[in-house]
């Protein structure tokens, strides 16, 4: 109980600090923090599959990019789309896509599941890359950001980077709270049990396929939320958003931060984006030191960077 209160207090202080960031930092750092929060949402959605359900997906970017494309396609060329309508379409589209793909890929397991998810992701990549559905390899622009009016009242303006950052921050905190609530429920305990021993859970009477499918759809929908926000921030959607490297980057964030923690993916996103910016200033071959760092973390910190905190806490508890 005391540990939960401390964790809640730390998260509260962190949330207040993040909320104060746009009033203290320059535009560049606010936009960087916005990108990190969007990637944190994306990484948390993947962690639900990988860290908690034991489903390693290499095609998770399909939902990320698909939601971005839906926003671009429903937006008038030189006018603002309605935020609530376009967001609902993007989330619903991502959920339907995840339902269709999940119903097929979840009939496999292990390496076959990994390869089939990769195959579906690459299929969508080439669909948008090699056809003129949405601009081909050049992608499609979102010239005007969506407007979220409520009965004529506009509570925030996405053209203002401070407003957009605060909305993304609320979304990230909301996703964290939602996933924490789901994982603390009986449903969450079942999917963790499926990761540990699916055959045992099936013998206890649980329809594991349905649980995994719900989990897959929820993860795909949240990835779609991240993709929608990314399209709003950068104003352009291209096939690279659907590519394998985007899914792989999210996996790297999980490895860096720590799988199965929810906080870990957010830490991994922040560290990875910060190091990427730092290494790019040092060398044009920044991928090399980045890869070395990730390998060292994987070898020395199997529970990721968050393991430094949890490991120290475990040692203190054992001494007490």
Task: Give a verbal description of the structure.
There is one protein chain. Helix content is 74%, strand content 1%. The chain has helices at residues 2-24, 27-53, 61-74, 83-105, 110-129, 161-184, 186-196, 198-203, 208-234, 244-257, 263-282, 287-300, 306-319; strands at residues 140-141, 236-237. Helix 7 (186-196) packs across helix 9. Mean pLDDT is 87; it is low at 312-320. It starts with a helix and ends with a helix. It has 13 helices and two strands; from the N terminus they run αααααβααααβαααα. It has a domain at 27-244. The chain is mainly α. It has a two-stranded antiparallel ribbon.
Give me the secondary-structure category.
mainly alpha
- Roughly what fraction of the amino acids lie in strands? under 5%
Please work out how many helical segments DSSP would assign: 13
Overall spatial form: globular
Topology pattern, helix = H, strand = E: HHHHHEHHHHEHHHH
User: What are the low-pLDDT stretches, counting only 5+ consecutive residues below 50?
Assistant: 312-320
Distance between termini? 17 Å
Main beta sheet: strand number and arrangement? 2 strands, antiparallel
As laid out across the biggest beta sheet, the strand order is 1-2
Helix content: over 70%
Mean pLDDT: 87
